[in-house]
Amino acid sequence: MMIGDALIVSAILFAIGVVGVLTRRNAIILFMCVELMLNAVNLSFVAFAKLHGVGGHVFVIIVMTIAAAEAAVGLAIVISVFRHFGALDLQNLKLLRR
Amino acid sequence: MTDFALPGELIHALMPEITLVVGTLILLLVSAWGGEHSSPTRLTTRFALGIVAVTAGAVILAWLRGDGGTSDGRLAGDGFRYAVDLVLLLGTAGTLALLDTEQARTRAYQAEVPVLMLLALCGMMLLTAARDLMFLFIGFELMSIAVYVLAGSNRSSARSAEASLKYFLLGAFSSGFMLYGIALLYGAAGDTRLASIGATAVGPLYLVGVALLLTGLAFKVAAVPFHLWTPDVYDGAPAPVTAFMAACVKTAAFALLLRIMTEALGPAIDTWHPVLWWLAAATMVVGNIVALAQSNLKRMLAYSSIAHAGYLMVAVLAYSADAAAAMVFYLLVYTLATLGTFAVLGIVSEGRESATTIGDLAGLWHVRPGLAVVLAVCLLAFLGFPIAGGAGFFAKWYVLQAALSSSTPLNVLVVVLVLASVVSAGYYLTAIASMFNQPRSSNAMMPVPTPIFSGVVMVVSVVALLVLGVYPTPASRLAAAGALGASPLRTVAAPQPAATAASRSQSTLPEQ
Description:
Largest sheet of chain A: none
Strand content of chain B: under 5%
Number of strands of chain A: 0
Oligomer: heterodimer
Distance between the termini of chain B: 45 Å
Largest interface: A-B, 44 and 41 residues
Helix content of chain A: over 70%
CATH topology of chain A: Helix Hairpins
Radius of gyration of chain A: 17 Å
Largest sheet of chain B: none
Number of domains of chain A: 1
Number of helices of chain A: 3
Mean pLDDT of chain B: 87
Number of domains of chain B: 1
CATH class of chain A: Mainly Alpha
């Protein structure tokens, strides 16, 4: 019962993340939406762990570690882009168009 | 199959990766010790080449000893792993040599660039060995995160920064999909091992998981319609990094795709086979047709690499041991041709911030015949031209053969492949014709003399391509050992007969 609810919430959160990535144009907001997607998946893992044992919990720890590494790298990239362009709106990044 | 591997066993199975990581961390410490300005960056690159050589030795040793992975089935120790590892090491060594050339030209690259390449290589080698979704995800992210940074490694270039951000956002987005697919597969199977997933009954959870996983992988291998990031990223990233992405990242992603498809997703073959069929056809057609319209060389090569992803997907679809061998051979040839092409590109575009176009190649034969010949051989290898294109012909030939002799002959897809290759002649031959037939314009820059490391890369790749083009037996035999050793395909032998009958009815649909 609880597991089904948790999976539905996780799917909704994931969908919100996907819609955010597809509709927003600010790099930081996009990045936050990606993190939301990852955390939605974490919720699924925890729910499944209730069925299948500790493997899901281990996976959550791994995902959180990797998400932290990704955040560090992502923010560094965002800073380097801001230094070059002075903006984080993806519509301003148009050097690479033929 | 036991539940957990003994620690000693794990260390034994991961020996090549551990060798690589220890070397890389020492290199990282040494390059950080020197501080930002004093560190001799080119020395780091050369040291990294040494580490790659030692790791290659460890891989060969493990292959010769016939190390069989771990007893819990989480790490593979088959020929496929070691053969793909060697292709990856070759690609990385070539890229490092090209990086040395770039570093001689500009001080924009820090000492950590070769370190990041080695870390990405470590992720890729973990990917080829992974038989468990956890290892697989760690390897995948280790590779991806390092390559995001590499794409932006030229800190003085705004184009490089833009490429890095675009690659990062789309890469993280796609790994989100992949991770969700992994979570659902874990939920359906109750275990993260590929073998357990391959023994699970197909249900709705399983199928949604397969779809999400396939979406994430399609982003990484740049299959149409998930390819839109590729031209921008390939164009903006520094030339050696583009070569690294085109050769090594693609190789690792395809090794992963093949292993997942054969070991874990065998039960759902009826579902994914038609989907992958259409992805492969669309990738070949769109990649080649859009490439025709490109004047920017790097964008043209990006679309050409998309098309090659389509050819490789045909090998995945053929779903046999022969197809796995054909794929390893194809990846070897593709890596060699990519290295040669980018070695020439790095010299022709030297000192230029804007994009290099096909017009910049005009008359290259008259000023630098050697460069023109190297580029011509590599482009002909991409095209699959016999003799002059070297082993490129055999690479395509083996894929076609595997596709036609698979249990569900992919006749229509083979026709698409051949027609798409004919279309690709349109842009490869245009570039070659402009090098040999057109006069050099008077205001064109004279290419700089070839640095020794780039020269070595060019000579090695062209000689290897031409020799394998006349006598492919040693490499194809090695590739066959790579597929059959302790084949990743052996485990799917059981579900195949039942699955193929059903998939035949589905995959022949487009023919009617």
